[in-house]
Specification:
By secondary structure, the chain is of the alpha/beta class. It contains 2 helices and 8 strands, in the order βββαβββαββ. One of its GO terms (cellular component) is cytoplasm.
């Protein structure tokens, strides 16, 4: 499982011109699911995203400006967007190979479980719409982007 996380000032997802999810200050997370992923790896990924320290600590003068706080500590939102293209193999040729991505039906079920778990761990969780042609708008804060992986 892979996640591309971005610290954002705000982010939103729309489908067919209708907003389906939005957050203010927080983390936009694109989630890619692979063949071997399961509920346990999904829970590990959510835990990692929620505790990954990508926000500055402006409260402690000794840590001022250092990335020392996570999204929960800054009361930020979490926007989860399914993104099978994160599982692409790009090391050969000029066309991505999506063979490593989980099959759509299984991925939809696992992504729904990932969302449900995230909502038990964090107050402000929004999502895109699985399998839809989504338009994602965000204002990247920093910019700060990190590629996270869990087995």
């Amino acid at each position: 499982m892979r996640a591309l996380i971005q610290r954002v000032k705000h982010a939103s997802v729309s489908v067919d011109g209708h907003d389906v999810g939005a957050i203010e200050h927080g983390v936009l997370a694109y989630i890619g699911l692979g063949h071997d992923d399961n509920l346990q790896s999904a829970q590990r990924m959510v835990d990692k995203i929620l505790t990954y320290r990508i926000f500055e600590n402006d409260d402690d003068p000794a840590k001022y400006g250092k990335l020392d706080k996570n999204v929960q500590q800054v009361d930020g939102g979490l926007l989860l967007v399914s993104q099978f293209t994160l599982m692409a193999k790009t090391d050969k040729g000029r066309r991505p190979d999506f063979g490593g991505a989980m099959a759509p039906d299984a991925a939809q079920d696992l992504f729904a479980q990932l969302i449900a778990y995230a909502k038990t761990q964090h107050v402000d969780v929004a999502t895109g719409q699985f399998g839809a042609d989504m338009q994602v708008l965000s204002v990247n804060d920093g910019p700060l982007n990190f590629l996270l992986e869990v087995p």
